Structures are given as C-alpha cells and as structure tokens.
C-alpha cells in the first residue's frame, strides 16, 4: 500500500510541472490503473488526491479533477460488475465505498474550482459535468447544483457590490474611530425636525369638540309671563345710612292665578286706614 500511495503522490506532483491545466493522457491513465488495482486502500488514495487538489494552483486544479473523474468512473463500472451497491453501507476497501467517498467530497472540490479556475477553463468543466450527467456517475441533484453554479453570471471584481446609498452609521473600517457629524449638521437636523413638526401641526385636522346642546328655555304660563313682563325693574339706591332702604313695589296690573286667600290682601284697618300688625293678622284679630 505504501508504494501505491507514494506512486500516486509522485504522479500528481509531476502533473503540476505541465502547462495549465496540467493534463497528460498517459499520466491520467497510469494513475487510474493504480487506483483500480489498489482499491483496498481507497480511503488513503482519495485523501491524497483531495489534499493535492487543495494545494494545486488555480490553473492546475482541472488536471486533478480529470484524475478524480477517470478513477471514479472506473470504480463505478467495477462496482456494477461485482454487484456492490453504492451507498453509505458499502464496506471499506471496495469499489462502492470508494465511489461513495468521492461523492461526499465532490461538492467541496467543485466549489473550489468554480470560484478559482480561470475563465477559459469553465467550458471544459461544463463538459465534464455533462459526462457525469449522461453516465449517471453522481446523483442528479448534485449535478444540477453544479450546472447552476457554472451557468451563473460571473461577478466582476471591479464592480461594486455595495448597495446604492450611503452606508449605515458606524460602518467604517475596523480599528478606525467612527466619524462624527460636523457641528453644522446638528442644527440643520434640528431645524428640519422642527419644520416637519410644524407641517404636521398645519396639516393635521383640529380635534373635534362636542358642544353641548343649548338648554331649552324655561317657559312660564301665559298669565305669569304677562305679569312678569309688566313688573318694573327694581332699582337699588345707596342711601346715606349703612342699611339700604327697601325699594317700593307696585302691585301688578293683572293678578296672578293663585288660590283665594281667606282675607283681602293687603288687609286694611277700617277704623284707622293703617296697615295692621303682622302678629294680629296671624292670630286672626285683624278682621
């Protein structure tokens, strides 16, 4: 096993000395045969290929991916011939186990080469994915995800990805003090806020105030209205003494409808013509 792993590593290193993308048909065939004949070490072989792919420069990653493609398709054919189902339950050191292990690592390899490979190699990568699709080498869902990434429009390095508009506050570079607004900016912000408040006060409708309904004026009977209308206005005069004198009151022209009194009002003394004492009237002796 040690010799097979050493031979694989030596052959991969030699491919880096070739011009991009580091492809040699004879070397790929030799490395493929080495992996098929030493399938019992499939886990170590795959680990060596993966490590070499990650270390390879972007211009030579496609050459390593060709090795992965050739070895995997040979292992798929051998797994079918030996009746080995390709799944996670495959026994280590078998063709099916090797294919399953490559399938788990392939998304990482494709993300790396899609992002870093030169633009002129993208068409070759697409052709490789088409071969996998026709041969059903890998799951179709995985192949579709590879095709979507390869067909996505490239993002130009000179094109700014910053959204249109000013950056949010505090979005400066790390380690640099945050830029503070100038002194002239603060009054402008205050004036703008006051103007907005004034516009809101002008445009806002005045609050509705419910006015209580006017109370219905009290109406007197017609007879009482006539009597009140003809009453003279009382006038109060300030006398020289501290106690004001009562104002004279004249009888109304029309009597108010009131119950008949047992005596004449005002009662008069027939003998003297003077007004009797109130106490005598109360006792009935004023008659």
Describe the structure.
The chain is mostly helical. It has a domain at 2-151: Alpha Horseshoe (Serine Threonine Protein Phosphatase 5, Tetratricopeptide repeat), CATH 1.25.40. It is built from 10 helices and no strands. The protein has helices at residues 2-15, 25-37, 42-55, 61-81, 95-116, 122-135, 140-151, 185-203, 222-230, 278-283. The protein starts with a helix and ends with a helix. Mean pLDDT is 74; it is low at 217-242, 270-274 and 276-287. Residues 1-154 form the CID domain. It holds the Pfam family CID. Residues 150-184, 226-287 are annotated as: Disordered. It comes from Xylaria arbuscula.
DSSP strand (E) fraction? under 5%
The total strand number stands at: 0
**How would you classify the helix and strand content by structural class?**
mainly alpha
Distance between the termini: 156 Å
Sheet bearing the most strands, described? Answer: none
Question: What is the CATH C level class of the domain at 2-151, in words?
Answer: Mainly Alpha
The pLDDT mean sits at: 74
Shape by Cα distribution: elongated
Q: Low-confidence parts lasting 5 or more residues at pLDDT below 50?
A: 217-242, 270-274, 276-287
Count of helical stretches = 10
> Helical proportion?
40-55%
**Any idea what the CATH architecture of the domain at 2-151 is?**
Alpha Horseshoe
Task: Provide the succession of SSEs.
Answer: HHHHHHHHHH
CATH fold-level topology of the domain at 2-151: Serine Threonine Protein Phosphatase 5, Tetratricopeptide repeat
What oligomeric arrangement do these chains adopt? single chain
Provide the gyration radius in Å: 57 Å
InterPro entries: CID_dom, ENTH_VHS
Biased composition (Low complexity): 229-251
Protein name: CID domain-containing protein
Domain CID: 1-154
